[in-house]
Design brief:
Order of helices and strands: HHHHHH
Strand content: under 5%
Helix content: over 70%
Structural class: mainly alpha
Largest sheet: none
Oligomer: single chain
Distance between the termini: 37 Å
Radius of gyration: 19 Å
Number of strands: 0
Length: 217
């Protein structure tokens, strides 16, 4: 019985890794679309978001089956409960990557190449997602806490982007203001992605220690 349960937990880990990879892929394609004004990549983000939604459904079903059939306790119960919370954050990450793509598709242009901090934000947020999922699979508390710390880095980058773009609008007397506001929105979505990666890391901490901090809604 325990061997069967362990196999199912291993399947859960694999599915979470796959969902995390889909999130990274969505962020990466959104960044490429933003950087290059690539509509094809932006459209692919929407497809990735649909795959993320399906992954959430599949993992939720597996978790509920484990809870009902195996009735786990202690650390096993925390691990499955944490996975159920994590997939909610990953689904929202997919939504926010899709929101970025929507901005690119709607405006049919981008100036992100002039705002390298946005690209840095994207890279940092994507790494946070990857590290948070790896921390869960590897039961690595130190890595989870490093993800939480890195949220401050993304927050600082967001403030830099916001200040830069507000100054751009002021200096150009509102010219290209719509584009600048769109980029502020993109940066905000990336900041929220980092927040959700932090949530995931906090659920990893809970799965290991039984202690959980308040999470972002």
């Amino acid at each position: 019985m325990r061997n069967r349960f362990d196999q199912q937990l291993e399947l859960l880990n694999k599915q979470l890794i796959h969902m995390g990879e889909l999130c990274e892929e969505a962020i990466g394609k959104a960044t490429t679309a933003l950087k290059e004004g690539n509509m094809e990549q932006a459209e692919k983000v929407r497809i990735a978001d649909e795959e993320i939604d399906q992954a959430e459904i599949d993992i939720e079903r597996l978790c509920l089956r484990l809870l009902l059939q195996q009735q786990p306790v202690a650390r096993d119960l925390r691990q499955i409960s944490a996975a159920l919370k994590m997939i909610t954050d990953m689904e929202r990450i997919g939504d926010q990557a899709s929101d970025i793509a929507e901005i690119i598709i709607t405006e049919d242009k981008s100036e992100a190449q002039d705002i390298p901090m946005i690209i840095k934000m994207s890279e940092a947020a994507s790494k946070m997602v990857r590290d948070s999922v790896n921390a869960y699979v590897e039961k690595d508390l130190d890595l989870a806490r490093k993800v939480m710390e890195n949220d401050d880095v993304v927050d600082e980058l967001f403030e830099e982007v916001k200040t830069t773009l507000i100054n751009f609008i002021a200096e150009n007397k509102g010219l290209q203001g719509v584009e600048a506001i769109d980029l502020i929105m993109v940066a905000k979505y990336l900041e929220r992605i980092a927040d959700h990666a932090t949530n995931i890391a906090e659920w990893v901490e809970f799965s290991i220690t039984g202690i959980h901090k308040s999470s972002v809604v």
